[in-house]
Design goal:
It is a single chain. Strands 1, 2, 3, 4, 5, 6 and 16 form a seven-stranded mixed β-sheet that branches. By secondary structure, the protein is α/β, with parallel strands linked by helices. Helix 7 (184-195) links the parallel strand 8 (176-180) and strand 9 (199-204). 45% of the residues are buried. The N and C termini lie far apart (71 Å). It has 14 helices and 21 strands. Helix 3 (51-68) packs across helix 4 and helix 3 packs across helix 7. The structure holds flavin-adenine dinucleotide. Flavin-adenine dinucleotide is lined by residues 12-18, 36-39, 44-46, 50-51, 54, 119-120, 143-145, 164, 185, 276, 280, 312-314, 319-322, 324. Flavin-adenine dinucleotide binds at residues 12-18, 36-39, 44-46, 50-51, 54, 119-120, 143-145, 164, 185, 276, 280, 312-314, 319-322, 324.
């Protein structure tokens, strides 16, 4: 009997979501699996042009900062501007260790998965086109991630601009850069620019950078960035941009103020992400999209076409690697075995590696208040810690948001040294449904930054 479909499962995108989906599909016994990837390397955004290259360059930045502060400990200070070429070489080596040398291709081959190189587009309910070829599949999982959102700023199409992806391809840095967008990517890259001696100005439309984070925590990051020499212009919208002989000039409309002009040698657009579904002809597969271009999904990751599932950034859910990595296998399970698995995003710790680091989980104080929750807030400043005295790194705080009646921990926000690691203590407590009193009563090792979590938990107001 002729096969009805070319594949049992066809996965679009080899990022954290797609790759985890294909490993799960193979584990679940799916026989004919295909993976489509349009980029020259497998692995997706995170290792190739996202998390890993940024964190690798940030490691150079942190090393410089530690070194520069060495004098107080009797270590000969070795600050100064680091070597960008050497840092890039290290960054590229790390990326290569993860996604180069045919490492991921070998896994795909060993799993018996057919790798299709090219850009996939939907061409029917159970069909995608890659180049000139059409493939049918019983189930399709779209894990194609997102692309950088480029806002419709007049003049932007006439000036050369960088995106996060292009920054990692640079061999030389500009003398100055105007960063449009004060979200996590804008903040992390500005810190990198500042330490490498680039004059960075961040323009942010909201009243604060990191507008989705707790405002007190974000304010600490903003202060530290300013001390590093980064200029922050918040509450400002780029009206239009123009090419100049020295680079670019942006005309800013300032909320409640006079318009401003800022010139820089280079422009970086870091204004968030955009759905790929429309460009992938989702309508040809009967996938209905919301007003942002993301699919209408059931809690089982199924689109309005019962044969098409989504996972990772392509869902429009919070866009982080661990979420993508969790969603891939869940979508694969549902696609193969039937809709059963869902994801709970209540406890989803995340890190922003600005200056200093910010780790957060759950609701911010503002979000909790908007949800009309009766809350208590506990705070502890790192300055009170012996650890901070020893390390000479006093900047930081822990903030806990707690339900007043039930004493359930609704959210935690930590800024300071190792904040993205520390936040996991709060996340584990939330995951295990512990109460804030459990965190207050726990014994913490001394001297540690983690002690501040206990202090915050014991000082609710
Ligand atoms: C600068 C930066 C820093 C980041 N830092 C962090 C961090 O520290 N921590 C964190 O958790 N997250 C971070 N992220 C986000 C993280 O990279 C993403 O959330 C994660 O990669 C999403 O995984 P995904 O599998 O859903 O999609 P992706 O990783 O985007 O993978 C999608 C894949 O699909 C391919 N593709 C796209 N369209 C098609 C098509 N039509 N046909 C075939 N293939 C296609 C793409 O080439 C890509 O390989 C960062 C992102 C950026 C840009």
């Amino acid at each position: 009997m002729a096969k009805k479909y070319d594949f049992d499962v066809l996965i679009i995108g080899s990022g954290p979501a797609g790759f985890a989906a294909l490993e799960a599909a193979a584990d679940l016994g799916a026989k004919r699996i295909a993976l489509v990837e349009s980029y020259k390397r497998l692995g997706g955004e995170c290792p190739n042009w996202g998390c890993i290259p940024t964190k690798s360059l940030l490691q150079t930045v942190d090393t410089v900062q530690h070194c520069a502060g060495g004098g107080i400990f009797g270590v000969k200070s070795c600050g100064g501007i680091p070597d960008f070429k050497a840092a890039c070489m290290r960054q590229r080596q790390v990326v290569d260790m993860l996604t180069g040398r045919g490492r991921l291709e070998k896994i795909v081959k060993d799993l018996g998965v057919e790798l299709l190189r090219g850009r996939a587009e939907f061409s029917g309910m159970n069909e995608v086109t890659v180049g000139n070829n059409r493939y049918t599949a019983k189930r399709i999982i779209n894990a194609a991630g997102t692309r950088t959102f480029v806002p419709p700023i007049p003049g932007l199409d006439t000036v050369p601009y960088l995106t996060a992806e292009k920054v990692f391809e640079l061999n030389q840095l500009p003398a100055s850069v105007l960063v449009i967008g004060g979200g996590p990517i804008g903040v992390e890259l500005s810190k990198i620019f500042a330490i490498f001696g680039v004059k960075a100005t961040v323009v942010e439309m909201s009243d604060h950078i990191l507008s989705h984070e707790d405002h007190e925590a974000a304010a600490i990051v903003a202060d530290s960035l300013i001390k590093l020499g980064v200029k922050i212009v918040a509450g400002a919208k780029v009206g239009h941009v123009k090419k100049t002989r020295a680079g670019v000039c942006a005309h800013l409309d300032i909320k409640g103020g006079q318009p401003k002009r800022i010139s820089a040698e280079a422009l970086l657009v870091a204004t968030g992400k955009q759905s790929r579904w429309p460009e992938m002809q989702a309508e040809k597969a009967g996938v209905m999209l919301d007003e942002h271009g993301y699919p209408q999904l059931t809690k089982y990751f199924r689109t309005t076409n019962p044969a098409v599932y989504a996972a990772g950034d392509a869902t429009g859910h919070p866009m982080f690697t661990p979420v993508a990595h969790h969603e891939g296998p869940l979508a694969a399970y549902n696609a193969i075995k039937g809709d059963q698995k869902t994801i709970d995003l209540r406890v989803m710790p995340r890190g922003t590696y600005g200056d200093p680091e910010l780790g957060s989980v759950g609701l911010t104080e503002l979000e909790a208040r908007r949800l009309k929750k009766q809350i208590l807030v506990g705070r502890a400043d790192f300055r009170i810690l012996s650890k901070s005295l020893v390390t000479n790194e006093p900047i930081g705080m822990v903030k806990l948001v707690v339900d007043k009646k039930t004493r359930e921990i609704l959210g935690g926000h930590i800024v300071g040294h190792s904040a993205a690691e520390l936040i996991h203590t709060v996340a584990v407590a939330m995951q295990g449904n512990l109460l804030v009193d459990d965190l207050a009563e726990m014994i913490y090792a001394f001297p540690t930054y983690a002690e501040a979590i206990g202090v915050a938990a014991a000082s609710l107001e």
